[in-house]
Write a structure and sequence with these properties.
The structure is a homodimer.
Chain A: H1 14-29, H2 36-42, H3 49-54, H4 57-87, H5 94-110, H6 116-128, H7 132-156, H8 162-189, H9 200-212, H10 218-224
Helix pairs in contact in A: 1-2, 1-4, 1-6, 4-5, 4-7, 5-6, 5-9, 6-8, 8-9
The first copy, chain A, binds a DNA duplex through α3.
DNA sequence: TTAGCATTCAAACGAACGTTTGATTGCAAT
DNA sequence: ATTGCAATCAAACGTTCGTTTGAATGCTAA
């Protein structure tokens, strides 16, 4: 046993090159719109390399996701741990919960040089086109983070019905997704558009907070007052 | 000239059957994920019928869009006309602008029996995956509506910088898109989830209004005070 | 009855798809 | 030197793709 080669992470770049190329192409053209020949060509590797290293196109897609989503989940959980440690048993403020949840996503989306932005575009896109095999691992990999953050949100807004909070979290994720896909889609609908990307985060957070803390609609108020 | 057959809209159902089948399949699996054979099979027409009636797969996609988007645009413009007529030269209230813009979309999304819901899912999905050939006609068909509604929003919020308004409109469209794709994506991220669909609209509008009227972020306030 | 024409149909086209194969390469350990 | 093995490679596999073709069909107008 000269060297525990064991869990071999050999072939220094080709796996990474494939993942990077695939990430960008999937974000740009979607899963079905991207071919193995495009991926391997852009990564400058042999056509068979993907099947050799990952097994299949779907497995590659999963790995593209797992690589960054795992990182994003860790960041979100760390943020929440830190925040909850600071306040002890007291509930967090809604703004703190939002910062912990969307902060890491926006930071990742702001990283345009290491693929973070590319991945967040892919994530937003995939969310609206959940292919069969994607639903499965998406739900699994998101589960813990969503569970902990929804609970934190419940506690931060004790007077708001839980169903309402879940919906608003959903609305907020939509707003953030569009914010990240951002300028492309914006230019698609309005005319040309250029703006300081650094302003996106303050803009978005004040919008989200406004929506999250908006007065409850009357119909919901009525439903929440009586029984249950 | 016995009958002005002229602009023939013959073949009573096959065009419509193709459009309906294509609309559903495109919404479910995307453009690249849907094959001509799936479409024609689900529509119970011959494989060559699509190319005969529409010319190509892309042209079919365009027609699927045009059919409903045209209707949606008309509704939105009618709403705005009516509202502006009511108030004369005075600016509209933000809530009125939102009602005019998102009301027709939500109504269409609530129609689950005539394909309206299906189309709105497709629209939200396409927004985040703008294929080359889609960008073109999307921008064209959206142009007039977006122009008029952004102006109406400017006037309804005279103290808010225009760039801010454009962004917030963008955020709102994201929230609405997610709201419509709705329960599918929600169940993907949280656990199971069931709720009264009739409550969606009041929930969404109070959220949107809260976001739209939220206080401006400090950075933007600073930028807007000095020159320019 | 017949001519014209829009529509439908079965069949085939070449191209591109994801995947597999079997040989070749180049380094590490014997 | 030689064996072992992970990695790369060119080539081919069988499918499925969007589109085209040319013949059949059925209705309408002359």
């Amino acid at each position: 046993m000269p060297q525990p080669v064991a869990d071999n992470r050999n072939s220094p770049d080709t796996r990474e090159r494939i993942l990077d190329a695939a990430e960008w192409l999937f974000a740009e053209h979607g899963f079905d719109g991207t071919s193995m020949r495009q991926i391997t060509s852009q990564a400058s590797v042999n056509l068979a390399a993907v099947n050799y290293h990952f097994g299949s196109k779907e497995a590659l897609f999963h790995e593209v996701f797992h690589r960054r989503l795992n990182q994003l989940n860790l960041l979100r959980l760390q943020e929440l741990d830190k925040l909850e440690q600071e306040v002890g048993d007291a509930p967090l403020k809604p703004s703190q919960v939002l910062e912990g949840f969307f902060g890491p996503a926006l930071e990742m989306a702001a990283d345009t040089t290491h693929g973070g932005h590319t991945f967040m575009r892919l994530l937003g896109r995939t969310y609206t086109e959940p292919a069969e095999f994607v639903r499965k691992f998406m739900a699994e990999e998101y589960a813990e983070v969503m569970e902990r953050y929804t609970v934190a949100l419940y506690r931060s807004l004790p007077d708001v019905p839980r169903a309402e909070i879940v919906w608003r979290l959903h609305f907020m994720m939509g707003a953030v997704s569009y914010a990240i896909s951002g300028i492309d889609a914006l230019a698609l609908v309005t005319g040309r558009f250029d703006d300081d990307p650094a302003l996106l985060k303050p803009r978005l957070t004040s919008f989200l907070l406004g929506g999250l803390r908006a007065p409850l609609p009357e119909q919901v108020m009525q439903d929440t007052k009586p029984a249950r």
